[in-house]
Amino acid sequence: MENIKKDVWLSIHSTQSFEGCPQEEVNLVTAARLYRKNDKYYIAYDESEITGLEGTRTTLKIDGKTVALIRTGRFASELLFLERQRHVGLYQTPYGMATIATHTSRIQNTIGEGGGALVIDYTVEIDHSVAGSHHFEMTVATQPFVQ
The whole model's pTM is what? Predict the structure, then answer.
């Protein structure tokens, strides 16, 4: 397969639930870059005020049912999602670096050259205690989304 690069549009919807707190929801539509290299897909976009991660570039590296979320810039971090597996990683917060673990219960991936969708359900552990559950949905389109 040859390598590709193209401009795309992302629609991201995520919810996070932490014990004792109201559910947080983020909805974002943004321009991004989709590329394929060595049979893996990459999606890169710049975070904004909406996500609270302004000054950060997020890249998703997608290889079937393995997804790496790599952030560079102001809030650097790397999280790995593998279905039915736990992964420990570092996460930069406004208060400093934290070690967190993700446990992924589900990954659905249809990302390809023409776009597609990615869904990830996971929990986050901080200091070996489950801190919250997360649901992440991303739709990739080659045309802008119609409002």
Answer: 0.87
Closest CA to 138 of 49, 8, 5, 23: 8
Q: What is the pLDDT of residues 35-84, one digit of tens each?
A: 999 889 999 999 877 777 788 899 999 998 899 999 898 878 888 999 99
Distance between CA atoms of residues 130 and 135, nearest Å:
15
> Is 141 in contact with 9 (CB distance < 8 Å)?
yes
Alpha-carbon radius of gyration of the chain = 15
Find all residues with CB under 8 Å of 74, minimum gap 6, and list them: 53, 54, 55, 56, 92
The two structure tokens encoding residue 30: 């943004």
Structure tokens, 88: 């420990």
Burial state string for 108-142 with b = 16 or more CB within 10 A and e = fewer than 16: ebebeeebbebebbbbbbeeeeeebbbbbbbbbbe
Residue 119 and residue 140 in contact, taking contact as beta carbons nearer than 8 Å: no
